[in-house]
UniProtKB/TrEMBL annotation:
Belongs to the binding-protein-dependent transport system permease family. Residues 87-276 form the ABC transmembrane type-1 domain. This is ABC transmembrane type-1 domain-containing protein. It is a multi-pass membrane protein.
């Protein structure tokens, strides 16, 4: 009778770990495909005439997600619309928001992490509460205030609400708390004041966190719809999401052109996110280190 040999414990653990890795990878791939399929279908639909958008949805076939006669006619038709001006407006508003917002959020995070004063915890709790409240819930009363201040149909009115972002302050403060105190003490011994410590120690070491916070500020402005709808009512200050919504006519919608405009509005932030992806992941991974 042959005796069975048991696998070593280390090999059993390796096998179990391999199985878990395979299933985790399959789950991640499935989730990725689930997110990618609607985007791919939108892209393919943007290469077809609008009348063929829903032709191959029922039943599903390979023609649903592929086309043998792609055309850029829908993208060419966008040149006759105001979408390009709206995209440039969105880029301007988003970039200015990132620059001004990083200056405000970084200094606020620095004050909440480096200085010890009475009420600091309460003030930080208010910051946390600010990004837990949906902005759309306060957009209408805030828009009434901005109209009283004559900020409607101005780029300043579109930019101001995005400058102070509670989530960006939280992210930067968490990163600042992880900076070794020895570096701060060395800077103090070299004669640096608090502002010098911020600009020469905190800011250079916080590049990943600043990029991650900048992406948050950019996406907040780029995908905003309710606030630009309330504040940018003329063609000069219209932003991308509002211009996209305006392309839907009352009695007729050209889905081919609509999907082409949607792809442009998606690809711009997607390219930016992919370019700074590793910095964003690094900034988020440091949250909660200290």
């Amino acid at each position: 009778m042959m005796a069975t040999t048991a696998l070593p414990a280390g090999r059993r653990r390796f096998t179990r770990r391999t199985v878990v890795t395979i299933w985790t990878t399959l789950l991640a791939v499935s989730v990725g495909i689930a997110f990618l399929v609607p985007l791919w279908w939108t892209f393919i639909s943007s290469l077809r005439p609008g009348a063929e958008t829903f032709t191959y949805l029922n039943p599903l076939s390979w023609q649903t997600f592929f086309t043998l006669t792609p055309s850029l006619q829908n993208y060419a038709a966008l040149l006759q619309t105001d979408l390009w001006r709206a995209i440039l407006n969105s880029l301007f508003v988003s970039v200015v928001t990132v620059v001004a917002g990083l200056a405000v959020c970084a200094t606020a995070a620095y004050g909440l992490s480096a200085f010890r004063f009475r009420g600091r915890g309460v003030l930080f709790s208010v910051v946390i509460l600010s990004f837990l409240i949906p902005f759309d819930a306060i957009a209408i009363p805030l828009a009434a205030m901005f109209r009283d201040w004559h900020l409607q149909n101005t780029f300043l009115g579109l930019i101001l609400p995005g400058i102070g972002n509670g989530m960006a302050i939280f992210l930067l403060r968490t990163f600042f708390l992880a900076i070794p105190e020895e570096l701060v003490e060395a800077g103090r011994l070299d004669g640096l004041g608090w502002w010098g410590i911020f600009t020469r120690i905190y800011v250079p070491l916080s590049r990943p966190a600043l990029i991650g916070a900048g992406l948050m500020l950019f996406l907040f402005q780029w995908q905003a719809y309710v606030w630009p709808l309330l504040m940018g009512t003329d063609n000069t200050h219209i932003l991308g999401p509002v211009a996209l919504a305006n392309m839907q006519g009352q009695f007729h919608v050209d889905y081919g052109v609509l999907f082409a405009a949607s792809m442009i509005l998606v690809l711009i932030p997607l390219a930016i996110i992919l370019g700074f992806q590793r910095y964003f992941i690094q900034s988020v991974s440091t949250t909660g280190l200290k």
